[in-house]
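[Discussion] Sanity-checking designs against the backbone

I'm trying to build intuition for which residues belong where. Below is a structure token string of 134 positions. I'd appreciate it if someone posts a full sequence so I can compare it with mine line by line.
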């Protein structure tokens, strides 16, 4: 395995309300807030990098229907970020100019159908594979 879904980013008109809703639905707790109003929620006592992805609810005033409101962010598990970036590009991912200033070390990419995702700098441990129940 080379990547794991580490977080899902959900754009919302009311980040507070949606974060509270999904916290109740998933049994998550608030893990942190960003200056842009984003709220990260995740499993209690585990946080980012655990076996379940965290959810970042991000305020957005962009109601364009063609813009997806849910994005996956992935983290490498068995190599560094730059090696994983090379692998993803070889698989058909394409860099996206998202107008970022470079203050964060994430890579904005698009899958072969144009769906954007981010490759985060955090390297996460590989999760053990369990056998399906019989």
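Best answer:
Here's mine. Compare freely.
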């Amino acid at each position: 395995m080379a990547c794991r879904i580490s977080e899902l980013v959900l754009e919302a008109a009311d980040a507070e309300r949606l974060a509270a809703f999904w916290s109740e639905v998933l049994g998550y707790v608030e893990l942190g807030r960003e200056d842009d109003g984003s709220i990260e929620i995740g499993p209690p006592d585990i946080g980012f990098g655990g076996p379940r992805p965290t959810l970042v609810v991000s305020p957005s005033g962009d109601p364009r229907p063609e813009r997806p409101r849910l994005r996956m962010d992935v983290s490498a598990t068995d190599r560094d970020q730059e090696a994983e970036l090379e692998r993803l590009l070889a698989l058909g991912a394409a860099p996206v100019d998202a107008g970022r200033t470079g203050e964060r070390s994430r890579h904005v990419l698009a899958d072969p159908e144009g769906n954007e995702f981010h490759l985060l700098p955090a390297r996460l441990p590989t999760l053990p594979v369990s056998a399906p129940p019989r």
